[in-house]
Amino acid sequence: MPPAKKRTRTYDPAKIRAAVLAQFSHVREAVHGLTGEQLALPTRLGDWTVRDLAAHLTMAVESVSRAAERPEPARAELGPLDYASATVRYAEAIADGTHALAEAHPDPDALYARVGERIAETLARSPHDRLVETRAGGMVLADYLVTRTVELVVHTDDLNAAVPGLDVPLDRQALAACTRLLADTLAVRAPGGSTEVRVPPFAVVQCVEGPRHTRGTPPNVVETDPLTWVRLATGRLAWKDAVADARVSASGERADLSRLLPLMA
Q1: Cβ-count burial of 56 within 10 angstroms (0-12 exposed, 13-18 middle, 19+ buried)?
Q2: Which residues contact 1 (CB under 8 A, 6 or more apart)?
Q3: End-to-end CA distance of the chain
Q4: What pTM value is reported for the model?
Q5: pLDDT in tens, 5-38
Q6: In sequence order, what DSSP letters do the residues of 39-69 get, joined into one string?
Q7: For residues 102 and 92, what is the distance between their CA atoms, to the nearest angstrom?
Q8: Which of 30, 65, 102, 255 could make a disulfide contact with 122, Cβ separation 3.0–4.6 Å?
Q9: 141-162 vs 226-233: helix axis angle to the nearest 10?
């Protein structure tokens, strides 16, 4: 008998909207307090400064408003699980746009105020099932907003890493959606049932080809916390370093995920 087809995870559109707005609000408040010296600090993203990173965080949200302003596409070509592959193709253009935006808006507060106002207006008038034309193709608005939680969570963590003591909070719902989407992406990239990946309290997925586990304790188990998982999935943390520092527990001969990570880089 063939294995049962896994159901695609669904997200509560209202909760995802609230999460996007909440995380953007956290970042906006933190950026408001940054000094010129802090904005000039380097980040772990190549030649990006904190000013560049702050500008990029607005792009993650402004893209929703811009997409909703365009005519609706004929159909949804992409879902949330296509996001990682789609984003990598546009990395160079995204980087160029980030630098240009930072240079064109020397006052981050004004930029955040404009973007915040636009996203609030956009979401107030746009139904969950509206189709939007994104850089990578047509998507349902509710699905596109799920991908925005990844952008906001990942780059909030980048911001915290760049500015000592900043500690921008992560909205719980945004972190949950980000964690689940990246875990499901792994399961799609490496289909199978031999390895169980646990990211409590938000996600459990089975992946990797091999003998399928049906009951009892799985023979191959990977377990970590949400933020460590996000860093592994996006190339901020190497698998070997996470294991060496005991930030990941990996047991079983099929529990080494190093060849599958990062999912996004």
Answers
A1: buried
A2: none
A3: 37
A4: 0.95
A5: 567 899 999 999 999 999 999 999 999 999 999 9
A6: HT-B-SSTT-BHHHHHHHHHHHHHHHHHHHH
A7: 16
A8: 65
A9: 100
Q: Is the pLDDT of residue 188 over 90?
A: yes
Contact 220, 253 (CB under 8 A): yes
Omega prior to 218 cis, within 30 of 0: no
Q: What is the DSSP letter of 103?
A: H
Q: Are strands 195-199 and 138-140 parallel, antiparallel or unpaired?
A: unpaired
Distances from the Cα of 49 to the Cα of 39, 59, 96, 103, angstroms: 7, 15, 13, 11
User: Angle 13-32/50-69 helices, nearest 10 degrees?
Assistant: 140
Distance (Å, whole) CA 219 – CA 97 = 46
User: Contacts from 212-218 at CB under 8 Å and sequence distance 24+?
Assistant: 212/3, 218/252
